[in-house]
Amino acid sequence: MDSLFGEAAASRERIAEGAVLLRGFAHDVSQRLMDELAKIVETATFRHMVTPGGYRMSVAMTNCGQAGWVSDAQGYRYDASDPVTGMAWPAMPPAFCQLAEEAARAAAYPGFEADACLINRYEPGARLSLHQDRNERDYTAPIVSVSLGLPAVFLFGGVRRKDRPRRMRLESGDVVVWGGATRLAYHGIAALKDGEHPLTGRCRINLTFRKAL
Ligand code: MD6
Ligand code: FE
Question: What is the pTM of this model?
Answer without folding.
Answer: 0.94
